[in-house]
Amino acid sequence: MAKIKVAKGAPRTDMTPMVDMFMLLLTFFMLTATFRPQEPTQVDMPNSISEKLIPERNAITVFIGKDNKVFFNIDNGEDSTLHIRQEVLKNVGQQFDITFTYDQLSKFERMDAFGMPVSNIAEWIDAPDQSTRDKLQVGIPVDSTNNELAMWILYSRKVNPKAEATIRGDNIADYKAVKKVLDIFQEAKINKFNLVTNLEKVEVSLENL
Question: Whole-structure pTM over 0.85, yes or no?
C-alpha cells in the first residue's frame, strides 16, 4: 500500500499582534514624553572643557543674557509629588503679599524659566499666548534695593536642599551683571556652582574667582 504524503507548507508568522504592540508603545511614549522647555533668552555661552555633566534634576539655574537681563528656573526634582515649583512660588508670593490661585500654581509647575518682577508673575502665567509671555520677560530685579533673585534662590534651596546652582551666562554679558549674580550666590552661601558653557560644564568655587 502506497504511503500517504502529507503536504508540507512553509511556516507562517502572524505579525498583527506585533504591529498592535508597536502602535501601543508609540502612543504611550508620545503621551508621556516631556519636551525640553524653551529657554527665556538666547545665550551664546563661552567655551571650556570639562567632563562633568549638567544635572537634569535638582537644579537651580540662573540665565544671564546678552542684554544683561537675569532669568531664573528651578525644576520639580526627582519626586514630582513634592510640587517643588509650586511651593517655591507660594513662599516667594507670601513675601510680597501675593496669593496665587490653584490653577496658577498648577500652570507654573509646568512652565519654563522666567524673568520678571514677582508682581508680574500672575500676568505671565495667565498670558493667552507665548508672544505675550515673551514681552513680560524683562529680567528679574537684582538691585541692592530690590533683589528678587536672592529671594528666589533662598526659597528654592529651602524647598529643595538637594538643588545644585548653575549659571548660564552669555559670553558677551557685562562682567558687572555676572558679578551681581556671583555676589548673590556668595550671600546665599553658595560656594560651589556649575558654570555652563557651549561645550561642557565647569564647576567653579567662589574662592577661585
Answer: no
